[in-house]
Design goal:
The chain is mainly β and 290 residues long. It folds into 2 domains: 35 residues, no CATH class; 241 residues, no CATH class. It is 12% helix and 34% strand. The protein contains 5 helices and 19 strands. The strands form 4 sheets. Strands 3, 4, 5, 7, 8, 10, 13, 14 and 17 form a 9-stranded antiparallel sheet that branches. Strands 1, 2, 6, 9, 18 and 19 form a 6-stranded mixed sheet that branches. β1 and β2 form a beta hairpin.
């Protein structure tokens, strides 16, 4: 006669092709089965997709977009590039898992990614023909429901020598000589009334140096952390929309005795609504998951 223990062992051997934890106990609490289902091992390849837009329309060099800013003006962009770093994937319980960036791309180095939406065509003549709309890397296998990253270049790289930096930190158009750091985002553009009114250069300001000329700190780091929840790695795209960034700005106006557009000065009236929408002095409205 088969005993209960013998019958259990027979069933286990019959189901070897299933991922089932079998033992000679008579009762399964269910905990082992749950742990097996949730115990993901190894790494997965991750490609975060980004897109430039203006009021929901895809960004393209030379395209004229209507309804921009508080005066619903027409704007023709001539550049749109930005750096991000510190990318993390978020689990449902809020745990942050760093994305280890691939190192075989000219758009990624030292935890920094350049997102380049321009293609040097038309008015984007100061740009490059190559574009980049992805951040790629690896992360531990798991279930992720959100993403977080920092807009900008980290302090330890921001004030290094761009002339000897690795790509993409070697682009002179993205370096701010007079501030001694990088332009975290560069937007150039024209409106019907003003050739360079739609101009935003985001970067650290109020920086101090020591006797040797090394930057020691910046009173305005201007590196907002962007958190997007309810984000599906397999289907969502991260959209950077210039229309929402400029929604509170009169892009035809510029205060006397200030640079055109916004050069990241906290005292420049044109910067106030922009810094707010970047998430530096308010709630960010520049990035969204779609």
């Amino acid at each position: 006669m088969l005993t209960r223990k013998t019958l259990l062992m027979f069933l286990c051997f019959s189901l070897l092709s299933w991922t089932v934890a079998c033992d000679d106990t008579e009762e399964d609490t269910g905990d082992d089965a749950n742990n097996t289902a949730n115990n993901n091992t190894g790494d997965i390849s991750v490609a975060l997709n980004f897109k430039g837009a203006v009021n929901g329309e895809d960004f393209a060099c030379g395209t004229t977009y209507s309804g921009v800013g508080t005066t619903s003006s027409d704007m023709t962009p001539a550049d749109f590039r930005l750096y991000i770093h510190g990318i993390e994937l978020l689990t449902e319980d809020g745990t942050a898992v760093p994305l280890e960036l691939d190192q075989d791309s000219p758009f990624q180095t030292s935890d920094v990614v350049l997102l380049d939406f321009e293609d040097k065509s038309g008015p984007c003549s100061n740009g490059t023909t190559e574009t980049n709309t992805q951040a790629t890397g690896t992360a531990p296998a798991g279930t992720y429901t959100g993403v977080r990253f920092v807009l900008g270049v980290p302090f330890e790289l921001n004030h290094a020598d761009a002339a000897v930096a690795e790509s993409p930190l070697n682009l002179t158009a993205m370096f701010w000589n007079w501030q001694g750091g990088y332009k975290f985002m560069r937007l150039e553009g024209a409106t019907t009334d003003t050739a360079d009114a739609a101009r935003i250069h985001l970067g650290s300001t109020g920086c101090e140096t020591d006797d040797a000329g090394a930057t020691t700190e910046c009173s305005n780091p201007n590196r907002p952390t962007i958190t997007l929840e309810d984000f599906d790695l397999t289907s969502n795209t991260i959209v950077a929309d210039l229309g929402t960034l400029l929604a509170g700005s009169d892009i035809n106006a510029n205060t006397d005795m200030t640079p055109p557009g916004c050069m990241s000065s906290a005292s420049d009236p044109e910067c106030a609504p922009i810094l707010e929408r970047f998430g530096i002095s308010g709630t960010q409205a520049f990035f969204s998951a779609q």
